[in-house]
Amino acid sequence: MTRTLRGLLGLLGFLLVWEAFSRSGFVAQRYLPPPTTVFARFAQLMGDTSFLLDLVATVLAWAIALGISIAIAVPLGLLLGSVRGIRVATRAIIEFLRPIPSVALIPLAIVLVGSGPETKIALAVYAAVWPILFNTIYALDEIDPVMVDTARSFGLGRGRTMFTVALPHAAPFVLTGIRMSATVALILVVSTEFLAGGGSGLGSFVLEASTGAGRMDLVLAGTLVAGIVGYLINEALELVQKRGLRWSSVDREAL
Questions:
Q1: What is the CA radius of gyration of the chain?
Q2: Is 220 a residue whose pLDDT tops 60?
Q3: What is the pTM of this model?
Q4: Following DSSP, what letter does each residue of 59-118 receive, concatenated?
Q5: I want to staple 156 with a disulfide (CB 3.0 to 4.6 A). Which of 62, 151, 238, 239 is the partner?
């Protein structure tokens, strides 16, 4: 039995249990609709222009946030990982900022950047920077000193050594950090849309569906879309990592 088939059987079993429990009468179907109802709403939403615009708004905000995170975290990680003095000097502030929950910063973000798309992008960037940053620093910590010494013995300067030795070594770790940050960024974008409200996106759609009439079928259908988007993003990045870094000795199955 292949890995994919086992996964599909597990998913099918979960859906059957959910369907049976929802129709058993233990919980009213308006609170926990069966998966057949949720999938029917999902199909309807895929033909709804308004919902598709919400989906595009979420994916676009996610893409912008991830791109900004990479542009910030990779150069900063290379700097902190290669210059010990700067790393020691900034350790306290980094360790102070890193544990702060991003959603707790929503009121501050609204005051500083407004209630538009900038808020969810800013918070997603804040949350997504850390996995990339620390993976990059860790990669430089793990580099073999002999490789660096060999490069320097051939007359390569610090900058050229960084691009020809350190970056190729760090690439698998950086891509792993990007995969982690991609998920974090999507969670923060949807969460900010849901908690801040007043805008477009999957989170705003779920918020509107959960209030008023309390359409849990629409809530779960919107949540299903968010899950599918996250799954596709992770699969795409994993494919890029496998095909683009075949030479890497990092155990990708463990990532």
A1: 22
A2: yes
A3: 0.84
A4: HHHHHHHHHHHHHHHHHHHHHHHH-HHHHHHHHHHHHHHTTS-GGGGHHHHHHHH-SSHH
A5: 151
Tell me which amino acid residue 29 is.
Q
Q: 40-88 pLDDT, tens per residue?
A: 999 999 998 999 999 999 999 999 999 999 999 998 988 888 777 888 8
Domains identified in the chain, total number: 1
**201 lies in some domain:** yes
Give the span between the Cα atoms of 238 and 103, in whole angstroms: 27
Contact assessment for residue 66 and residue 128, using Cβ atoms and an 8 Å cutoff: yes
For residue 240, the model assigns a pLDDT of: 85
Question: For the chain, where are the alpha helices, taking DSSP H only?
Answer: 3-23, 35-45, 49-82, 84-97, 106-113, 117-141, 145-153, 158-161, 167-196, 202-210, 216-244
Tell me the CATH number at 167.
Answer: 1.10.3720.10
**3 state SS of 144:** coil
